[in-house]
Amino acid sequence: MKKILYLGLLSALSVNAQKTAPPAPYGALPTPQQVQWQQMEYYMFIHFGPNTFTNKEWGHGDEDPKVFNPSRLDARQWAKTAKAAGMKAIIITAKHHDGFCLWPSKFSKHTVRESAWKNGQGDVLRELSAACKEYGLKFGVYLSPWDRNHPAYGTPEYNQIFANTLDEVLSSYGDVFEQWFDGANGEGPNGKRHEYDWDLFRGVVFKHQPKAIIFSDIGPGCRWMGNESGIAGETNWSTLNTDGFGMGSAAPSTQVLNTGNENGKYWIPAEVDVSIRPGWFYSPDTDDRVKTLTHLMKIYYSSVGRNGNLLLNVPVSREGLIHPNDSTRLMEFRKTVDASFKTNLALGKTVTASTVRGKDKQFAAGNLLDGNYDTYWTTDDAVRQASFVVDLGKPTEINRVVLQEYIPLGQRVKSFKVEAWNGNRFETIDQQTTIGYKRILVFPTLKTAKVRVTILDANACPVLSSVGIYKAPELLSNPEIARSKQGLVTITSEVADPVIRYTTDGTEPTLASARYSAPFNYAKGGTIKAKAFIKNGAEASETIPASFDLAPANWSVVGDESSRNSASRAIDSNPGTVWQTARQEGSRKHPHELVVNLGESLNLKGFTYTPRQDGQSGGTIYQYSFYVSENGTYWKPVLENRSFANIKNNPVKQEVAFPAPQTAKFIKLVALSSVNENEHWASAAEVGVIVR
Ligand code: FUL
């Protein structure tokens, strides 16, 4: 009897003396580099090259290298701007699809050496890598394997040439934190396509930069998240199945890239690449179209707020500088993010969990608030549902909740909810799926004294590093400007009792500008800038610009029923409706055409094509020809066999200038191919002309 008691005492003692073991890791795990990478959260992309000077998104590779001639290039200004914006790194397009190298590569004859800049003595990578060092930023490089210039492209030799090119870059400019591989793979100089040797390329990266994160559609370091509009999946697993998949068209569907695979075999987290302007390269045409602060904040919440890193592109201008419109917006963005997450209202408050692993203090809920990512709250192994309550002490206004999983042990949580105490009981604020490294919930401001977070399901016991509760300043919502087919402009605002002021001369609206009260005629077009004011101007929205060309008031579509197929939707001034032609049967997939009678003879400088905006890409035109006519019978070709560069991944309005102005009463857009192979139809949201 005595002996048994003694043994019992001994085992109880040893339990106390021995700490509870931490949970075993679950599923695919990040490398230490991937954890560090995830903690960077936000960094800059720079698209720069001949396209900057030629107004193109995809150069053809036949551009004269002399066009590359920035007048005041200053990489320190880029780095200084990125640093001030709160970014942690810069990734630059060392070589885009046009093949032009921003450094004097030994393996190409299409480089800065052949350009007019610094008499061919310059090296953008040298200047930028030094500037990044000076400002404490990491440095990364984008290199496109697709090369529309290199004569060897499409031959087996090209793989080794590209490997040499990589070798040169990765051994010459110090540490490279991320190697960005573009999956786009189109034709080369003679319409050639190429089979890339990815194993060879990855080998070169790791030879010189063993710690680098390799970005591609399928990693291995991080993955493309399936669109270029900045929106990661609401469900976003950092794990992905890539066996049997490849890059570009061989990649998993964009839908899978957007959400990852639950229990995916490899840890390949999402990177959200998006441009601050409509296109990736600088164009003076987009100086007025830098994304609004409201739009950037939405992107922040759908990238960093959804377990993704944000790679925000800020294209360098023809001067070789970041344009003031972009840097001003970047500073506003930083200020707003900082203000939103300035004070964690949970800090110093009590947090109580429904259960704690082994009842051991080292895993207690207090770890959620200690500011240390490496300590966490967790539960016993068998637990899949658990909650904790943050007691704010008194009713407090809140509108953001931030949660973080401890990813070195894997991504575990499958669903969770957040509730607020209404004085009697808890009411659900939001219920969501994954958390991952960081999840931010955004909801309208409410007042509560207690917040409860409940993990509803997980693949293994939940392991959470932190919780944050915030009251972010509310941005006044922006006015929206729309114009009807007839040319009537309507300006709407969601704000209660706003005073909307607008200008039509390009200036900033002030309290003294024209007041919007009813739709007005603006059929001839121009630029409208609108701003909503409340409280006699004490608070205001952002200024929203909208540019219009001639309204299609008197236009009509021409042709038989099959080619017309709701063609009027392409000229109804409503980008929400889609014109889609009937599918061509048999082997003949194209052409499909849209013929428009403009109602009068006009002096045309170009045309516009807005692809469908409904999230689908079916029928979006890739190659096209454009014709004009005075009588609708004799057609003059103006642009033949052209293509809308990068329109599949970035389906924004295309504005195409004619080589010379044309006088015409009829226009014809002929679709020669769709962005998706084997597609037998064409579509458009809007087609317009440029007369202004
Ligand atoms: C895409 C490219 O085709 C675009 O031009 C841009 O560089 C974007 C970041 O990636 O695949």
UniProtKB/TrEMBL annotation:
It comes from the Bacteria. GO terms for biological process: fucose metabolic process; glycoside catabolic process. The lineage of its organism: Bacteria, Pseudomonadati, Bacteroidota, Cytophagia, Cytophagales. GO terms for cellular component: lysosome. GO terms for molecular function: alpha-L-fucosidase activity. It comes from Larkinella punicea. This is alpha-L-fucosidase. Residues 562-590 are annotated as: Disordered. Its EC number is 3.2.1.51. Keywords: Glycosidase, Hydrolase, Signal. The keyword Hydrolase applies. InterPro entries: FA58C (IPR000421), Galactose-bd-like_sf (IPR008979), GH (IPR017853), GH29D-like_dom (IPR059177), Glyco_hydro_29 (IPR000933), Glyco_hydro_29_N (IPR057739). Residues 334-404, 527-692 form the F5/8 type C domain. It holds the Pfam family CHB_HEX_C_1. Residues 574-584 have a biased composition (Polar residues). Residues 1-17 form the signal peptide. PROSITE patterns: FA58C_3 (PS50022). Belongs to the glycosyl hydrolase 29 family.
